[in-house]
């Protein structure tokens, strides 16, 4: 097999923080306050769950940071799991990223962008007469084909941009992220200073239905918040391209998560000062209404709706771009060991894993055309928390296995902090099996589909080495 070239160390602390934040801030910052209001019926409890979700995220991030500081390498958890567990478990993780976790995230973000873009500039219908055509009742490529083609075009565009070099892609992420943060801060400033705003009401723990808030409701609302925090571990995928990675990655992860927590608290305080929880509950029950849009309309009217459509389009585009940038490095690391499709090992003239980018883009586009990516997206949290828990368990394993190894960062609050996060992961796993068995089983099937591929790749690798 062709010997892979080495990736270059081009990213510093600032870029690491950008990648962390850009991978987290997506559509959740605009939408999740609605379903949380439907669960809790209290603005104070909603903010409490944003804080609690952020703290749990931080616990996971700090635990991940110790492992990243000790084992920093391209591929993130894929590289970590080889040391913590074995090559088989590492492969199953990487395969899960490819089949579900990261490619489904790219597909769904691109689709949300296309929907928002269509709200700004009308996209004409494409082949509407074929909307009922399908393959085996599973593959539906033609419904909303105009939206799907726009989403595919966006994936291909940013795949091309990321093929120009990691630093160039990260610079674009930084520019887009600055626009997003600025726009969100504009919403906060104008929202909280408007005459229709009632900031004190955002901190009230009174429930509008006069019923006490139950632990189950808090847990469900916190899961909604956690979806908005998803993506913080992606910086580990580019660990082999970070300068002084064992110090920079842990610090970058912690800093990025703190930034996101602060942004989420500010903007959700703004929403809750402008809209009552009954209004937010009603918004949650509507398929075509977004909480952030209705909040901005309170002080900007109809023009606020256009502003939010543009902002949501930019935000989802940024998050998708960051996901494309980081995720393909795992498949490259797998291919270097003969555990992925052989062309994924190739680097282009800009020292970017172009083969891996192409495989990623192809599968993400196929998910969009299939019409099933929404269901795949529902499985992302279930699948990813299996591996988040496994990484955090690795903190305990590595302290036993490698007690004298230098650790640039040790998780604060050990062993309590990582133990709490592991218990949360277990709770989420069993709660999903109970409440969403279909999504959980399908997620486990997709994860398990990697088993025959592992033995196929292993056999081909051995045959190649013999030759």
Give your account of this protein's structure.
The protein is mostly helical and 467 residues long. It has a single domain (13-466), classed as Amino acid/polyamine transporter I (Up-down Bundle), CATH 1.20.1740. It has 18 helices and no strands. Helix 4 packs across helix 9 and helix 10 packs across helix 12 (291-300).
Counting DSSP E segments of at least 2 residues, the number of strands comes to 0
Identify the CATH homologous superfamily.
Amino acid/polyamine transporter I
Describe the biggest sheet?
none
Regions with little confidence, pLDDT below 50 for 5+ residues: 1-5
CATH C-level? Mainly Alpha
Number of helical stretches of at least 4 residues: 18
Structural class: mainly alpha
CATH architecture group name = Up-down Bundle
Domain module tally: 1
Shape: globular
Q: What percent of the residues sit in helical stretches (DSSP H or I)? A: over 70%
Strand content: under 5%
Instruction: Measure the end-to-end span.
Output: 9 Å
| Rg over CA atoms | 22 Å
Helix-strand topology string: HHHHHHHHHHHHHHHHHH
Mean pLDDT: 82
Query: Looking at CATH, which topology would you report?
Result: Amino acid/polyamine transporter I
């Amino acid at each position: 097999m062709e010997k892979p070239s080495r990736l270059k160390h081009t990213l510093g602390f600032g870029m690491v923080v950008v990648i962390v934040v850009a991978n987290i801030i997506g559509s959740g910052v605009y939408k999740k306050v609605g379903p949380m209001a439907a669960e809790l019926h209290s603005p104070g409890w909603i903010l409490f769950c944003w804080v609690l979700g952020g703290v749990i995220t931080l616990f996971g991030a700090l635990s991940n940071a110790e492992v990243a500081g000790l084992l920093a390498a391209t591929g993130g958890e894929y590289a970590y799991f080889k040391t913590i567990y074995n090559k088989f478990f590492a492969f199953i993780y990487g395969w899960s990223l490819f089949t579900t976790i990261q490619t489904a995230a790219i597909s769904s973000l691109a689709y949300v962008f296309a929907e928002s873009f269509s709200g700004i500039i009308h996209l004409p219908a494409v082949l509407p007469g074929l909307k009922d055509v399908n393959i085996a009742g599973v593959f539906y490529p033609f419904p909303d084909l105009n939206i799907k083609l726009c989403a595919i075009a966006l994936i291909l565009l940013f795949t091309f941009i990321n093929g120009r070099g990691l630093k160039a892609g990260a610079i674009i992420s930084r520019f887009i992220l600055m626009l997003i943060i600025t726009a969100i801060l504009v919403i906060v400033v104008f929202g909280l200073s408007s005459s229709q705003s009632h900031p004190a009401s955002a901190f009230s723990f009174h429930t509008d239905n006069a019923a006490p808030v139950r632990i189950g409701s808090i847990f469900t609302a916190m899961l909604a918040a956690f979806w908005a925090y998803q993506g913080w571990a992606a910086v580990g995928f580019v660990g082999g391209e970070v300068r002084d990675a064992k110090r920079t990655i842990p610090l970058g992860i912690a800093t990025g998560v703190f930034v996101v927590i602060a942004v989420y608290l500010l903007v959700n305080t703004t929403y809750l000062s402008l809209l009552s929880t009954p209004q937010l509950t009603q918004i949650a029950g509507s398929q075509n209404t977004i909480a952030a849009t209705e909040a901005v309309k309170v002080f900007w009217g109809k023009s606020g709706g256009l502003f939010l459509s543009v902002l949501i389009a930019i935000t989802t585009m940024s998050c998708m771009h960051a996901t494309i940038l980081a995720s393909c490095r795992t498949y490259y690391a797998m291919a270097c060991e003969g555990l992925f499709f052989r062309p994924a090992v190739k680097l282009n003239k800009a020292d970017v894993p172009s083969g891996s980018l192409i495989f990623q883009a192809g599968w993400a586009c196929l998910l969009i055309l299939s019409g099933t990516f929404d269901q795949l997206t529902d499985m992302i949290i279930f699948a990813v928390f299996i591996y988040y828990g496994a990484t955090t368990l690795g903190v305990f394993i590595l302290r036993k296995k490698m007690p004298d190894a230098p650790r640039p960062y040790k998780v604060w609050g050990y062993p309590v902090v990582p133990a709490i996060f592991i218990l949360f992961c277990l709770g989420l796993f069993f709660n999903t099996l109970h409440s969403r068995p279909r999504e959980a089983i399908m997620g486990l099937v997709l994860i398990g589909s990697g088993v025959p591929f592992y033995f196929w790749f292993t056999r081909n690798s051995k045959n190649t080495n013999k030759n």
